[in-house]
Amino acid sequence: MLYFAYGSNLNHFQMKRRCKDSIFLKKYELKGYKLNFRSKYRAADIEVSKNSFVQGALFEISKSDEKKLDIYEDFPVLYNKIYFKYYNKKVMTYIMLKKTDFRYPTEKYLNVIKQGYKDCNLNKKFLIQALKAIKNR
């Protein structure tokens, strides 16, 4: 199955530790969403936003990987699953159920995500812009 990562799971070391069968496929931009950070965990989330996109990555994962991610992402309490199509293949990602106010991520968590941006060859300026845009609300 295909999985779209946009937060700390972009980090290849962390993703392999959580999901031993996972294979990084490619970077990917999810259109119609924007990145946010929220909840008491200050975790990454995506929300619907016209004319925006979220940088992330597509991974191939196994059923057992998905079960591990469900536990890690606290599905279905903190995150729910949404699906979209990529060349007629179903892609799963997680989205927070409760849209709480923005909470700036911890430095440690943000560093894991920054490494993920490097690992997936994403442009870090989009992460920095998201943090600035949110911070200035």
What's this model, at a glance?
With 137 residues, this protein is of the alpha+beta class. Helices cover 31% and strands 39% of the residues.
Summarize the structure in words:
Helices cover 31% and strands 39% of the residues. By secondary structure, the chain is of the alpha+beta class. The chain has one domain: Hypothetical upf0131 protein ytfp (Roll). The protein has a five-stranded mixed sheet. The longest helix is centred in the last third of the chain and has 13 residues, at 107-119.
User: Major sheet: order of its strands?
Assistant: 2-3-1-5-4
CATH architecture: Roll
Helix content: 25-40%
CATH class: Alpha Beta
The chain-level structural class is: alpha+beta
CATH homologous superfamily identity: Gamma-glutamyl cyclotransferase-like
| CATH topology call | Hypothetical upf0131 protein ytfp
- Write down the overall mean pLDDT: 94
Q: Could you tell me how far the N terminus lies from the C terminus, measured between alpha carbons in angstroms?
A: 37 Å
Question: What pattern of helices and strands is seen along the backbone?
Answer: EHEEHEEHH
| Poorly predicted spans | none
| Major β-sheet profile | 5 strands, mixed
General shape: globular
Number of strands: 5
Query: How many domains, as an integer?
Result: 1
Count of helical regions: 4
Quote the beta fraction.
Answer: 35-45%
Radius of gyration: 14 Å
